[in-house]
Design brief:
621 residues, Glutaredoxin, alpha+beta, single chain, 12% strand, 3 domains, 5-stranded mixed β-sheet, Glycosyltransferase
Length: 621
């Protein structure tokens, strides 16, 4: 039996290399083998820090008898969902036709042409209640394959058609302020009045929704109460500062102990914007002390399990105090460097560092941006999806990678005043902006394309904004800097396709709703030019829908202008003094050089979003 996973870039795939299952990695080869042998395909999708993925691997995929049966009657494919998010998104959508309990490990059965005909998640070795055993599932699948093939293939074709139709969603009108305010009130109705957060158990941080509520000024207090509850709960690691992925119970107890880059990036932005410097500092400490790699980029996650006294232990390391941890080996990292998720971490550190005056966080964002561009940007300007150490994945980059990294680079540009980062972000968005839409350069995943399952832009959101939302957010920042109308038009078109879904399922579309909130607001720009001082301090951290703040030296303003960023044209330090320009839609008031002249110009902006101290800005006006 060939060991095809031993040399995989993904740590998750390598962890399965010694299974007796004859695993294939994702690609055309396993489907060719399934066609040759006329057998179904078992597709197993997970990730390195997924607890139940590890459990199913130990219970089922390490069983020699079951593996022998799989090898004889199936072709088996193992996929890291973080390395191939488009594969995961496509088959997660298909799995929704068979179960409402979606998650990982995702277990999908496919025809040799890649179409799903049955799916589930974790299956135990013996039946538990209504949950069948994995062996029973395999038996039923083979019975259908051998005896009801025509019906099976018909159903698989209908599901494939539904997936393709989802990728062709027509646009609808974008919501205005009244509709977005109604969404805020609706989200408040989902609040757990006793323990805060949304809904019951399990309970997730849903950072994109929290940031959307902060964009709207958090008028119901839902986001602030949730942030306070999480800060004081078991979901927060009291030693290393990061947040765990979710809590099993609705009172935020019994954490599921893996720690993800994307959750902590989103929460760092939220706590910094809310003015909670202590909690933000803890998250930044986790990113810089645990996830930061030697290159300066960030690993994607840290596992929940560690080895304590020779035994696997779920969460034992995290339940130990600082002195006990010093004697324990920490849980392993999933040390994949993912382009888009690094972009989220870069953006969070740059924004929080500037807002809370932690220049070391901004420096870390610069170092990570440098590392990702050096390693993941090809000579033609396109991106790679993932790397580990000195090896790169063959997985194609996604819209999440282009949009996420562009958002991070723009945050670095605004935090440092250096236009070169914005130029790099503009290059990325220009690559994906094709005929007015955001599309990945090239043909995307070739296997999905061959099966007719390739999506131009996946609409699904949740713990992270979608690629379409990230590209739209970056494009709106670029529009605010350049006045190049196609950037705004593309964002409007992309969000139009998500508008109906977002209004119907607000809890799952925080990233898109934040972009829609920006589109609904008037564009207001503040540029402070000259030596740092009181005016820059007064606008530091000022944000909200449609608000862009830039503080630059006079020399930097000239460099931005020369690079084609129209906002900075003619922006000089009047008489050598620090000078503020307050603009709306690129039409600027007369420049001011003192606080008394600046403050009246900021009243309307402060009433629309979060103020510099993180307090709700209605209190500032």
């Amino acid at each position: 039996m060939a060991n095809r996973l031993a040399s995989a870039v993904s740590p998750y795939l390598r962890s399965h290399a010694d299974n007796p299952v004859d695993w294939f990695a994702w690609g055309p080869e396993p489907f060719e083998e399934a066609r040759r042998r006329d057998v179904p395909v078992l597709l197993s999708i997970g990730y390195a820090t997924c607890h139940w993925c590890h459990v199913m691997a130990r219970e089922s995929f390490s069983d020699p008898d079951l593996a022998s049966w799989l090898n004889e009657r199936f072709v088996s494919i193992k996929v890291d969902r973080e390395e191939h998010p488009e594969v995961d998104q496509t088959y997660m959508t298909a799995a929704g036709a068979f179960t409402s309990s979606l998650g990982w490990p995702l277990t999908v059965f496919l025809t040799p042409n890649g179409r799903a005909f049955y799916a589930g998640t974790y299956f135990p070795p013996q039946a538990v209640g209504q949950l069948p055993s994995f062996r029973d599932v395999l038996t039923a699948v083979l019975d259908a394959w051998d005896n009801r093939r025509a019906q099976l293939e018909h159903d698989a074709g209908r599901i494939a058609d539904a997936i393709a139709a989802a990728g062709r969603r027509e646009g609808s009108p974008l919501p205005g302020d009244a509709e977005l305010d109604a969404v805020v009130r609706e989200l408040a109705q989902y609040e757990d009045q006793q323990h805060r957060g949304f809904g019951g158990a399990p309970k997730f941080p849903v950072a994109p929704v929290v940031n959307f509520l902060l964009d709207r000024g958090d008028p119901t207090g839902t986001a602030t109460r949730m942030l306070d509850a999480m800060r004081d709960s078991e979901l927060r690691d009291p030693v290393e500062g990061g947040f765990f992925r979710y809590a099993v119970r609705r009172d935020w107890t019994e954490p599921h102990y893996e720690r993800m880059l994307y959750d902590n990036a989103g929460l760092l932005r939220a706590y910094a914007r809310a003015g909670d410097e202590d909690t933000a500092s803890g998250i930044a400490h986790f990113l810089l002390s645990v996830l930061r790699q030697q290159s300066g980029a960030f690993a994607s996650a840290q596992d929940s399990e560690s080895i304590i006294d020779g035994q696997r232990n779920e969460g034992g390391y995290y339940r130990a105090d600082a002195s006990e941890r010093a004697r324990l080996a920490p849980p392993p990292l999933d040390d994949k460097v993912l382009t888009g998720l690094n972009g989220l971490g870069i953006e969070a550190l740059a924004d929080a560092g500037q807002r809370l005056r932690h220049p070391e966080w901004v420096d870390a964002a610069v170092a990570a941006a440098t590392a990702v561009l050096r390693r993941h940007r090809l000579p033609d300007g396109t991106l790679l999806r993932a790397s580990v150490a000195d090896r790169v994945s063959e997985a194609p980059a996604t819209l999440e990678d282009y949009g996420g990294l562009a958002c991070g680079l723009l945050a670095v540009a605004l935090a440092t005043g250096e236009q070169s980062w914005a130029e790099a972000a503009r290059d990325l968005i220009d690559l994906v902006l094709q005929d007015g839409d955001f599309r990945v350069p090239g043909e995307g995943d070739p296997v999905l394309a061959a099966a007719g399952l390739a999506l131009d832009a996946d609409p699904n959101e949740g713990a992270t904004p979608s690629g379409a939302s990230l590209c739209s957010r970056a494009a709106l920042r670029l529009f605010a800097l350049t006045a190049h109308e196609p950037y705004r038009a593309a964002a409007e078109r992309a969000m139009g396709r998500l508008a109906q879904l977002a209004l119907e399922q607000a809890i799952s579309f925080g990233g898109a709703l934040a972009v829609m909130s920006e589109l609904a607001a008037p564009l207001r720009q503040i540029v402070v030019v000259g030596p740092g001082g009181g005016l820059a301090d007064r606008v530091r951290g000022l944000d909200g829908p449609g608000v862009l703040v830039a503080t630059v030296t006079e020399q930097q303003a000239g460099a931005w202008t020369a690079a084609g960023f129209e906002l900075f044209e003619g922006r000089t330090a009047q008489g050598g003094r620090e000078t503020a320009y307050v603009c709306e839609q690129f039409v600027c008031r007369l420049p001011v050089t003192d606080a008394a002249g600046l403050e009246p110009l900021l009243v309307g902006i402060r009433s629309a979003g979060i103020g510099p101290t993180g307090t709700r800005s209605a209190d500032d006006s």
